[in-house]
């Protein structure tokens, strides 16, 4: 029975995958899948059951397991590795599969049948440190088992792993050493009863191993499909997408590794967007290189949208072309091309993956919004109401802000644990305070913080919740808190434009102008339609870096898009003045005064931690004629 709420508990997480799985799939896709399903059903499920674990889910060739006991988790891991050695006897070398296993003990967040949190991420990173046939465990697991199991643990020391901000002390159990060690005692029980449960679990795991409906999240389990505490869209929202393996057009089969790696990185990065259901990398591999209509692939994968493309290496440069298509009718909805210099190949791969994922997510969100707006108003659920609230808020007007908040009130009534709804409400409340639409702005900022905190309490990986906190804390001149929240948002999803803009805001007010510009410009690459607050911040940063022409170009476009926003005209006037465009500066000031008759020069830019930066903005505005 599913747990319908969220709770925290201490658990040992085991994460295992097959070493060299991509190579095995390239050699023989169908046989590799058959072998993997057999291993999962005949070995993994029974062993996990015997040692009182719980298979949370499988992701492609990986399996995530929860244990309440660290000792039982280690016993299970050892049994799995020895079992795979036995199963490989008599199998030709090119078909042999071997697990890499990582284990970590810590606090987890449990929601329904899924688990989340740093403990899950660390277990996945430890698995990546393991060699095929071996086990790597953290010191938290080691301390629990060192005096209970006579196993040949080898101290690997402290190591730094990707996306974990602290070194982790690791221990390993090597395959060769495991073969010689004493077998840990096995639990006993009713064979007949256990055999029935093995069969049930084995069938379930074998079905899941097909991967065709399993979503994928980087560093953790796949996302949920239903709205709840973690704010997933319902399945009928149609936001399921599969990233087909990018075609290597370099003319050199040896370069397949780059296109394969880029495909997997894009899948991981896009999977961080919780409003999307992203199919696993393993799910799309059977369709590699096959000439099939998109509608057939989409039907087989149960995916509404398909992403395809190609990779071409040209000397020291690489070009990646990506297309987004509607699988139901084969219509191309979006296409973009990315070029980069091939210096550090892995840095290039990560950089392109982040950009592709960010722009794809932005496009898919716009498609979801248009689909929602076409639905009858008497047939709306919480997710569609949230989308409509975004549409109302997009114009950044007082009336739109109020109507959007009214819709979000309905969302929280329909789904009281929908974290994203509270984050959206926090965002709109903060906008009301900072856009001049509130009689009590200080109170609204406090309310925005409270709502954002509720969002991250419901879902610690709610990017928008952390982003609002970053901007709100910076507005209150709590700079360290603002920077920390912006860093947390980007740790969760480096491809999220709003997270980058929140980071840019925090960096701006702390005086790190160049870093602020870099973060904001990256966000603009992901989504050119940034809001007026973000445009204002980037405009100010351009003025402070003396990039006056860039400031004028940006702020002119933002003023056209958001004519009612009351603050864009003032930095635009300053940029015009610095460019010697006196008449334009005076006109911008006049428009600014008309929209904001109570504007006070000495308070503009008061958020800056360094008073000298505020004084530089004041000097540009005085040069424009504002006294």
Give the SSE map.
Layout: E1 6-18, H1 21-27, H2 29-50, E2 54-59, E3 62-67, H3 70-88, E4 99-111, E5 114-116, H4 118-129, E6 135-138, H5 139-145, E7 154-159, E8 168-173, H6 175-180, H7 191-209, E9 240-243, E10 247-248, H8 256-270, E11 277-278, H9 281-284, H10 294-301, E12 305-314, E13 317-326, E14 331-341, H11 345-373, H12 382-393, H13 398-414, H14 419-434, H15 441-458, H16 463-475, H17 479-492, H18 497-509, H19 513-526, H20 532-544, H21 548-561, H22 569-578, H23 582-595, H24 611-624
Parallel strand pairs: 4-6, 9-11, 9-12, 10-12
Antiparallel strand pairs: 1-3, 1-4, 2-3, 4-5, 6-8, 7-8, 12-13, 13-14
Helix pairs in contact: 1-2, 2-3, 2-7, 8-11, 11-12, 11-19, 12-13, 13-14, 14-15, 14-16, 15-16, 16-17, 16-18, 17-18, 18-19, 18-20, 19-20, 20-21, 20-22, 21-22, 22-23, 22-24
In brief, what are we looking at here?
The chain is of the alpha/beta class and 627 residues long.
What report would you give on this structure?
It is a single chain. The protein has 627 residues and is α/β, with parallel strands linked by helices. It has 3 domains: 6-209, Nucleotide cyclase, GGDEF domain (Alpha-Beta Plaits), CATH 3.30.70; 235-373, Rossmann fold; 382-624, Serine Threonine Protein Phosphatase 5, Tetratricopeptide repeat, CATH 1.25.40. It is 53% helix and 15% strand. It contains 24 helices and 14 strands. It has helices at residues 21-27, 29-50, 70-88, 118-129, 139-145, 175-180, 191-209, 256-270, 281-284, 294-301, 345-373, 382-393, 398-414, 419-434, 441-458, 463-475, 479-492, 497-509, 513-526, 532-544, 548-561, 569-578, 582-595, 611-624; strands at 6-18, 54-59, 62-67, 99-111, 114-116, 135-138, 154-159, 168-173, 240-243, 247-248, 277-278, 305-314, 317-326, 331-341. Strand 4 (99-111) and strand 5 form a beta hairpin. Helix 16 (463-475) packs antiparallel against helix 17 (479-492) and helix 22 (569-578) packs across helix 24 (611-624). The longest helix is centred in the middle third of the chain and has 29 residues, at 345-373.
